[in-house]
């Protein structure tokens, strides 16, 4: 589908990469990996045709469509969510307008027997068949399915996009891209603005897409679940592995060991040659051999070794005083902005030494509760911070508190104490501030770089309660490993707000789920929580009329008017689960039929298939089945939404 030949990109004296060649085939699911600054985003821009390489060619097969999602983009704020998503179907609307014009012309004309009239009927029939084939009659169901998969609720569809944060607007752009179903999807950090449920939905979507996918992501679980091929950019070259990321890590380690052995052998050869030249340089009888060795030395091409894995760096929080047994206790906590209640009746107790995760859809109150704990915003109810608690807080805005006139190195040097000062360069390298980057002034750093620097600073301060709000957003996989190991060995308490399953796995022992204005406690790790979610979708969390299911509340409040009894709630949840299974089954069925349609259309596009009426009949029958299944999906989804309200 896309062929890359002899690619070279220069931004200075040293090329970013050179002599790069590879082919993207249909069904390829490629993870593009490498350290920050290796050229991953640049490669995606070149594949998308947005940037020209210094040398080389990118050949795209005729008729192949490419969809590209950058990390950051300029977003429009003039439409509703649905109107913006519908822009993915502008080609459908153009076709619809043409059909309406032809239909009107057929109604207005009276020359029924003329050749022109019959030609118009034929054109109308052909265009109408194409319109139906492209899903023109059912595009709205696809939009709703995709928006809901990415975390929007039906009540959001007609809200102006200007009411949403930048992260939610990026979701709309992702929805538009997915709805166009391009042959090749290029995704640069698509999970940065998604919660766990939306990431899982995106995984399933990408796994069933018939086209190719090339993605850059620091979410290890996501790329392992989606990709079947890994291309690494390292030392200006690429290494192509036909395996998912975890297998690539093993093979990469073996490759580096081979490089190291070859490098050591070459260094020994160079040393022996130099010693020979030095020893016999002035002996006339050895002049020929000396000249031969000098030429041999000049011809040696130095062996480059891949970047050293810095994840092995051991970083330990400095000792802090012991906190009380219960660093955080919330009782009947409530936070509302006017009529909008973010959460209510929150009862939770975090014990000393516990590491807990706050998870849930964006906008459900995770960061709001953190701000309540930090006493940054007012709230109702009781929130107690325990005895001797020293809080280390990381949020994106913490980066704004750094001294802009200091260098990166000086910023860390001022907080590092004891032996750790000897490892400052190693620590900075582990968080992507290696080499000259450590001498940069803070004021010239990007937002992501400042966030990483604020994270390092926090790691070196003596605290006994860590509160981290999306700590991995600007970290690569090696940096995340360093941070994860440090938190795992931290003997204090940690609250982590994150959507990164791989990061939370093996780190937290309790999960608090935010949703529907409620906070529910789940004992166990992140994958225990996800497994439970698949068995029991915890629909009561989405019911605004349900009783509080915050810890300890079920037995405290009697059923009253407007609240469901236990048995009624149980029956309602059972009905909702049944409908959810129906929706899931219909979505799977529609996806399978759409794949069959795509396969038939491929065959119909060949010279042999174009004249095969059986293919055409099968295609029409499948399209009819899809339309019926989508109509049923709409009805079931509507019934489900009514039960949830």
Automatic annotation (TrEMBL):
Location of the ABC transporter domain: 2-260, 328-541
Record-linked InterPro entries: AAA+_ATPase (IPR003593), ABC_tran_Xtn (IPR032781), ABC_transporter-like_ATP-bd (IPR003439), ABC_transporter-like_CS (IPR017871), ABCF_ATPase (IPR051309), P-loop_NTPase (IPR027417)
One Pfam family here: ABC_tran_Xtn
Protein name, as recorded: Probable ATP-binding protein YbiT
SMART domains: AAA
Molecular-function GO terms, alphabetical: ATP binding; ATP hydrolysis activity
Taxonomic path: Bacteria, Pseudomonadati, Bacteroidota, Bacteroidia, Bacteroidales
PROSITE patterns: ABC_TRANSPORTER_1, ABC_TRANSPORTER_2
Region (Disordered): 544-567
Protein family: Belongs to the ABC transporter superfamily. ABCF family. YbiT subfamily.
